[in-house]
Amino acid sequence: MGFQPDEPYNDLPDLPPERMLENQQIFNELISAGRALAELKGMGNTIPNQNLLINSLTLEEAKDSSAVENVVTTHDSLFKAFTAKTGQIDSATKEVIHYREALWNGFTSPKKNSLLTTNSFINIVQTIKQNTAGIRNTPGTQIVNETTKEVIYTPPLGEQLIRNKLSNLESYIHDENGMDPLIKLAVIHYQFEAIHPFSDGNGRTGRIINILYLVQQNLLDMPILYLSRYIIQNKNKYYQLLCNVTEKQEWVPWILFMLKAIEETANLTRGRIIAIRNLLDETLENAKEALPSRVYSKDLIELLFHQPYCKGQFLVDAGIAKRKTAAEYLKLEKIGLLFSRQVGKEVLYLNKQLLELLSR
User: Fold this and answer.
1) How far is CA 101 from CA 19, 24, 207, in A?
2) What average pLDDT score do residues 87-109 get?
3) 88, 151, 246, 288 - which has most CB atoms within 10 Å?
4) Domain check: are 161 and 123 in the same one?
């Protein structure tokens, strides 16, 4: 019957794609994307404390990935909520925090079991959505043009059919077929989006799979390459190219788009890491001059860069200060390093320069 936008696409072809995916243009872009990714991997290893990157950048990705789905929060609300013990968190910010949790859980579990499976996809979406929903088993899921409300895609229907498609995707992910992993990443991302196995949370789950696949392939050591911002900036093109693969099997433009996304995002992230590192070095120098020796320590300043907001309990947990003296260590407003804010019953301390850097 072929593809009909308003009919379940149960004939979605299995992987691998039948069409040849390599051409000179793709090879050229592969070189650029691969080089940018390798430089990012190397740069990540120069940060003395990896938590510094992971905490800040994963929250940044959680915010951007959720924004693709029109779940919008501010940087300040997000970082504040991640630090404070308060029930006064809006639903959008909660969703972003759950995305970050799903990303982190996914990163730590494949370390022990490097397989990306249907079960791991379900774990990711259940963490994002904070429910027990599994594979779609009821009709009604459709992709609709936000402006015209026209149905542009209806994913496959039937739980067993969807599980069969996911099983094929699993095999493709782990098959050593000689294809460059960055090309495979583009194919995997399309196929997961096309299967659309869940009632909600597919986009965010698919973007987490991207990151985990790069780590699994040893192209990154840490989950620090996030394509969500690039997708937001090119949202219409992103969806159009996905549709063109479905309707016309036009793989090459889609693969080129994803390779360009990897290259530009890797370069942007590398610049972000350099900026964080420079700000940390500058802050270490200033704090050493301004703080009494009993208060100053490299560990203290690095802790203030794990995320923009800090509190006394973080110092206690890190073994930097005792509970009675922790607040004293954080009174760095005199040198313009931290700014205190009352949130509920707690006092949080904001590293304003770090927040401004991450909000650019």
Assistant:
1) 37, 40, 14
2) 75
3) 246
4) yes
On whether the CB atoms of residues 353 and 309 are closer than 8 A, the answer is no
Three-class SS state of 46: coil
- Domain range holding 74? 24-271
For 202-214, what is each residue's pLDDT tens digit? Answer: 988 998 899 899 9
Q: CA 47 to CA 325: how far, in whole Å?
A: 29
Q: Looking at the structure, tell me whether residues 190 and 228 fall in a common domain.
A: yes
Query: Do residues 280 and 343 share a domain?
Result: yes
> pLDDT category, 72, cuts 50, 70, 90?
low
CATH of the domain at 333: 1.10.10.10
Report if residue 6 sits inside a domain.
no
Task: Verify that 103 and 152 share a domain, yes or no.
Answer: yes
Helix (H) or strand (E) segment spanning residue 349: strand 346-350
**Are 210 and 334 members of one domain?**
no
Examine the domain organization and report whether 261 and 284 are in the same domain. Answer: no
In a domain, 338, yes or no: yes
Residue with tokens 């459709």: 142
Residue range 225-266, pLDDT digits in tens: 888 889 889 989 999 999 999 999 999 999 999 999 999 999
Beta strands 151-153 and 143-144 are antiparallel
The pLDDT confidence band at residue 332, using thresholds 50, 70 and 90, is: confident
The predicted model scores a pTM of 0.88
Q: What is the DSSP letter of 334?
A: G
Residue 116: C-alpha distances to residues 108, 109, 113, 212 (Å):
12, 10, 8, 8
Lowest mean pLDDT among 88-97, 208-217, 273-282, 323-332: 88-97
Alpha helices in the chain (DSSP H): 24-44, 50-68, 75-83, 91-108, 118-129, 159-174, 181-195, 202-216, 228-233, 235-248, 251-290, 298-303, 312-317, 326-329, 352-358
The answer as to whether 4 is a domain residue is: no
